[in-house]
Predict the structure.
Amino acid sequence: DTEVTQTPKHLVMGMTNKKSLKCEQHMGHRAMYWYKQKAKKPPELMFVYSYEKLSINESVPSRFSPECPNSSLLNLHLHALQPEDSALYLCASSGGRGLKNIQYFGAGTRLSVL
Amino acid sequence: KNEVEQSPQNLTAQEGEFITINCSYSVGISALHWLQQHPGGGIVSLFMLSSGKKKHGRLIATINIQEKHSSLHITASHPRDSAVYICAVRGEYGNKLVFGAGTILRVKS
């Protein structure tokens, strides 16, 4: 099983809402990632978790709050988002701490902020 | 100048043609990835390279570490190959990928 599962596939939310994106993998990977992708642009790294600890935060605004409750799950909590936060949010995972591991990507959550 | 440059930005081919997409990078790397993204969809990892050449079906990826250059080749292209192909490099330290801008490929039947 090389699957990274993201839910929901689509999400529409208002600027005052609180919502969460979920990501799950059962490959035993210990590194998990959140990316943001705007239309016709490459993905931009937001966060990296390594062994369930936050190891990289690319200066992401605090209205995005990541959480890694266990080695298989990664959440992204959203609160007071802005319309410019509308994008495709991609989760990925890779095995261990090794430098030369493939990242497996999920299908993404397409988020629209109204 | 971006650390990862891809060419061409857009490519239209006829079904059956041999296709080459190029990637040049300016930093030291531990690995280079080729990724495929269909419209509105998630990303599929095609290859990860640190040296030499890899082949999977009709896809071939090569890398020249000295020249800091990689190519992705598609033989006998098919309309289902239409997608965005993204080159991404992993630096010598850490897990972070640096992405190229992508090449939009359209294969016409």
